[in-house]
Structure formats: C-alpha cells, structure tokens
Specification:
- The chain is α/β, with parallel strands linked by helices.
- It folds into two domains: 183 residues, Quinone Oxidoreductase, Chain A, domain 1, CATH 3.90.180; 131 residues, Rossmann fold, CATH 3.40.50.720.
- The chain has eleven helices and 20 strands.
- Strands 3, 7, 8, 11, 12, 19 and 20 form a seven-stranded mixed sheet that branches. Strands 15-14-13-16-17-18 form a six-stranded parallel sheet, with helices on both faces. It has a three-stranded antiparallel sheet with strand order 2-1-6, with helices on one face.
- The mean pLDDT is 97.
- Keywords: Metal-binding, Oxidoreductase, Zinc.
C-alpha cells in the first residue's frame, strides 16, 4: 500500500524544505501517523552546519528522532489501530556482541533516526507517516498529554545518564550545563533519590529552568565562587558534565569528591588540557553516557504517569510546515529550550 506523506528534509547547510514523498507499507512492521516531534541539538547542527561532527549530509534526509504518533496499521496482535505510541528512534541489529549482551546502544550496526552516519542516510521521524519496526512502538494512554509524551527520547537519555552514575539514593549531585538534557537529568536524579542537586550554567535563563525542574542550588561559574564545593578534594558524590566545554569538565573534576563518580554526557571535541592527574589522584570514576537502552520504555512510563513534568522546558510549538522558522527559533538559546513540531 502506497502512502503519501510530507517530510521535513535537510539537504545541506541552511537548506531545508517540507517535501511531498511516498512510502510503502507492505503489512510488515507498523505504519505510524506522526503527531508531534521535538527538535534536538543534532537537528540544529544539520540545519546550521549541514553536518553533525564528521557526518555530513550528502543527500536529502528527513530530520528528527523525538517523535510520537498514532498507529494506522500494524502487524502486531498486541497493538491496535489508533493507539498512541512513542517511537523509539533506535533500531539495533539484534545480533552483534553488544545486542546479545543487552547493550543495544553500543550496537555496531545501529540505525538511528535522522542520522547521516551511513549513506544512504537513515531518515528521521519528522514526517506525517512513517513505517517502523513494531518493536519501536511503545504505547501509552490516549489520555496522556502529547506535549509531555514528546519528551520521551530526551528523558530516556537523561535516565540512562543517571543509571550510569550508579545508586543515587541520598547522594549529593552536581550538574554542569542545564540545557534540556541537563534539566531532565535533574528530574531523573531527583526521582532516583538524590538528596541534594546543585546546578551550574553561564545562562541565567537555563538556571531559572533548572530551578523549575527541581535544582536546590544554582551557580553561575562566571561570577560565583566554587571554593566551598572544591574544598577537601570535592563535595559531590556524583557530577554530570552536560555541556562538553573544557572548563566545565575541569570544574566537575574539581568539585567531585575523591572516589566519586563523574558522568560525561555533553559532547565535544578533544580536550588537550584535560586534568589527568586530578582524575588519577582523586581516583574518580569517569563514565561516558550515550543514548539509552531500556530507559526509553522507562521514560514513556514516567511521563504517562506524571512522575516528572517536563513542560517548563517547552518554549514553543510550530506546525511542521513552518520548519525553518521552528529551527531558527530553536537555535536561539536566549529564547528557546525545547521546541516541538506539530504534524
């Protein structure tokens, strides 16, 4: 069955369009009518620079990996037409050594929505209709707020980062960089039992959002003194670095207590001046955090059951036909945290 759709496509730097396309559903997998999607930092990079890291757009590609929708047709007996679902953008191979160990986020053949890593590129979810593997569809109650449920993917990233830190019950936590992911990490660690949450950012707007998301103390490292947190080899049991900036990495190592844990979430390039001796001497456990595994299902459950409220982070909504305006607004960090497209 051929299905006509309209898709939000990037073809290069500052080159985007809403294009008419045709897809085919052949009774395998699930055909989803996309209803809403959140714009992520990678979508902005593809728009602003035509690439993410070394992955350059070489042909028109559909953007987006934070999407929800409703089932149109499915090959599953457990799902039904009209059912609301969050769409997991991860499609692991299922047979590599990491998939077999339930570490699917490390899959060597991962196909992730809206990625120029491979060529042909992997199309994303910013389209009115999309065929996905049935396993990628995580149902939720039709009574749930779609604005809330569209946060499933970034919340999954935050929960995974929190899990990487280990047991957070009663722990003192430092979060450096409180954009949307940093703010969702606040909610995640609070839900998982953190006793104290201190957040740092150079943006007063981001810090105000962090307060709404549950931070106990706010710090602007450009003019606030962190000596108290650095004393006696550090104060915090766990730190999360969520900006990728070299100075933020150093700060996290300075304020994390000896034998503590630092989770690196923020992405960035090489850090030539990385304070290696501080990491060694304080015996800090440095952990990376990348995407998620089962945390996507956890995120859907938390959002559907009002465990956390992500809506303070929602800065704007645009019809998908106003794609470029939405991307421009989302790229203005003086105004925008999370921006959603409505299909």
């Amino acid at each position: 069955m051929k299905v006509k759709t309209q898709s939000c496509v990037v073809a290069g730097k500052k080159t985007v369009a809403v294009s008419d396309q045709e897809i085919e559903w052949n009774n395998k997998g699930t055909l989803v009518q996309i209803t809403r999607g959140g714009i992520c930092g990678s979508d902005l990079h593809y728009y602003q620079e035509g690439k993410v890291g070394n992955f350059t757009v070489k042909a028109p590609m559909i953007l987006g990996h934070e999407v929800i929708g409703k089932i149109v047709h499915t090959d599953s007996t457990e799902l039904k037409e009209g059912q609301a679902v969050a769409v997991n953008p991860s499609k692991p191979c299922g047979h590599c050594k990491y998939c077999l160990q339930h570490e699917e986020n490390q899959c060597t053949e991962m196909r992730f929505f809206g990625s120029a890593m491979y060529f042909p590129h992997v199309d994303g979810g910013f389209t009115r209709y999309k065929v996905v593997d049935t396993a990628q569809c995580i149902p939720f109650s039709s009574n749930a707020d779609e604005k809330v449920m569209a946060f499933a993917e970034p919340l999954a990233v935050a929960i995974h980062a929190a899990h990487e830190a280990g047991d957070l019950q009663g722990k003192r936590v430092f979060i450096s960089g409180v954009g949307p992911i940093g703010c969702l990490i606040i909610s995640a660690v609070k839900t998982l039992g953190a006793a104290e949450i201190v957040c740092a950012d150079v943006s007063s707007r981001s810090l105000s959002l962090a307060a709404k998301m549950g931070a106990d103390t706010l710090i602007n490292p450009q003019h606030d003194d962190l000596a108290l947190w650095k004393a006696e080899k550090g104060y915090f049991d766990v730190s999360f670095e969520v900006s990728g900036h070299p100075s933020s990495i150093t700060t996290c190592l300075e304020v994390t207590r000896a034998k503590g844990v630092m989770v690196q979430v923020g992405m960035g390039g090489a850090v030539p001046e990385f304070p290696m001796m501080m990491l060694i001497a304080k015996e800090i456990s440095l952990k990376g955090s990348f995407r998620f595994t089962t945390e996507f299902n956890t995120a859907v459950s938390w959002l559907a059951n009002n465990v956390i409220d992500p809506l303070p982070l929602l800065s704007g909504e645009y019809p998908f036909t106003e794609l470029e305006q939405a991307l421009k607004f989302a790229g203005d960090k003086t105004q925008a945290a999370k921006v959603q497209l409505v299909f």
